[in-house]
Write a structure and sequence with these properties.
Elements (H helix, E strand, L loop, with lengths): L1 H15 L1 H32 L1 H5 L4 E5 L11 E2 H7 L5 E15 L6 E9 L9 H4 L2 H4 L4 E5 L9 H8 L2 E5 L2 E9 L10 E5 H7 L8 E2 L1 E6 L5 H11 L4 E5 H14 L2 H31 L1 H9 L4 H38 L7 H22 L1 H4 L3 H4 L1
Helix pairs in contact: 1-13, 2-10, 2-11, 2-13, 2-14, 11-14, 13-14
Length: about 375
């Protein structure tokens, strides 16, 4: 019953000054949009960075000890990978070749950098439906597959392939046939991907053909093998020029590089904090003005016996009403921006229930903090001073 009484009072006070209420709602919505966008970009940064990691079929990975990220690779000897094949619990190993390549747009002949992935088609290492359906064709000389999720500067390749099927272009000044499409997408460091066989990859980079160096090794374990035990054993037995890591560690290492070794992750975190602060300041100003304007009414309530606790709860109720009313348009606007950003940049910007709940919680906290500061004016209200 008490809550029902507080709600009408809080709502009536807000509704009395409609322009002030709409300013508060707009301010909260703006703060929410800012937080949603920063969190969305941060999530897209991390999700895009590990797209390749997620489609590799293996439980343990080998990389150079100096490996930092996919855009900062260091090669290591292929012998290390085949040494791992001799240990208990290891079923198979697959070398992976990675490198930026120069792609010639078949429509306007402009040169752009794609990110090439080379693998042995017999190993079926890439868990991409389009690639799995074309493994035999990839074994043919000078054949590649194109990422349908790549940016448009590479050409309208999906439409071109749909119209005429297999077509030719140039990669690293070598003529190749595009025999199919797959979809992987873009990230902050990579604008599109190219998939080919390991042999074709080495043909594109003649200087690597005889050196026996690879960029990554994928290890598939026997069914029922203890992954932790195999991981510990490989770390103890293999030379220390390679890093032996689980898939989860591999994902975290890539995300950690973008979060701590580049300014991008910091910028997005800072943007979310600034959004929170901006929202808190706006709500504080609105609530402080509202309390100041209604100070005689609050003093009257005090004079007739209402305690400070009740009056403070009215202001907090106002704050929560504003939080709810500001969050709804903020969420709607953010969904629109997510869609526009996804179409314009092809980044994996997706709203999640967890993020929406988290921002709603931050909005309530933001408004609650503002209310806690604003009610200091109310606590000092003395009926004797008013009358």
């Amino acid at each position: 019953m008490k809550m029902k009484r507080k709600l009408p009072i809080a709502w009536l006070q807000l509704k009395k000054e409609k322009s002030r209420m709409f300013v508060a709602i707009a301010g909260i919505a703006f703060a929410d949009v800012l937080m949603f966008l920063q969190m969305g970009f941060r999530s897209a940064l991390f999700n895009g960075a590990v797209q390749i990691h997620n489609v590799l079929d293996g439980e343990i990975f080998l990389v150079s000890r100096r490996y930092k990220s996919l855009i900062s690779l260091d090669r290591f000897s292929e012998r290390r990978l085949y040494q791992a094949l001799g240990y208990t619990g290891v079923k198979s190993v697959s070398p992976i070749y990675l490198s930026p390549v120069q792609w010639k747009n078949p429509e306007n002949k402009q040169i752009w950098n794609l990110y090439a992935i080379g693998f042995n088609p017999n190993d079926k290492t890439l868990k991409l439906p389009g690639v799995q359906a074309n493994l035999e064709q990839l074994k043919r000389p000078d054949t590649v597959m194109f990422d349908a999720g790549a940016r448009r500067e590479f050409g309208a390749i999906p439409e071109l392939f749909q119209q005429q099927g297999v077509f030719s272009t140039e990669v690293e000044n070598r003529r190749v046939d595009v025999i199919g499409l797959f979809k992987l997408g873009t990230s902050f460091g990579i604008n599109g991907h190219l998939v080919t066989s390991d042999i074709n990859f080495l043909r594109l980079f003649g200087e690597r053909r005889q050196k026996g160096l690879i960029d990554m090794g994928v290890i598939k374990l026997e069914p029922g093998a203890n992954a932790d035990w195999v991981l510990t054993n490989l770390r103890a037995k293999l030379p220390d020029d390679v890093l032996v890591i689980s898939k989860q560690e591999f994902l975290e290492k890539e995300k950690g590089f973008w979060n701590s070794s580049t300014p991008v992750g910091y910028v997005f975190d800072l943007g979310a904090v600034i959004g929170f602060i901006v929202g808190a300041v706006i709500v504080y100003q609105i609530l402080y003005s509202d309390v100041s304007d209604h100070l005689p009414e609050y003093a009257t309530l005090k004079a007739i016996g209402f305690r400070d606790r009740y009056l403070l709860s009215v202001v907090f109720t106002e704050a929560m009403i504003l939080a709810a009313m500001g969050f709804i348009p903020g969420l709607g606007i953010s969904l629109g921006f997510y869609s526009i950003t996804r179409q314009a940049t092809l980044l994996p910007m997706v709203m999640t229930v967890e993020r929406a709940i988290f921002v709603l919680t931050l909005t309530a906290l933001m408004c609650g903090i503002s209310a806690a500061i604003a009610i200091r004016k109310l606590q000092s209200a003395d009926p004797a001073d008013i009358f």
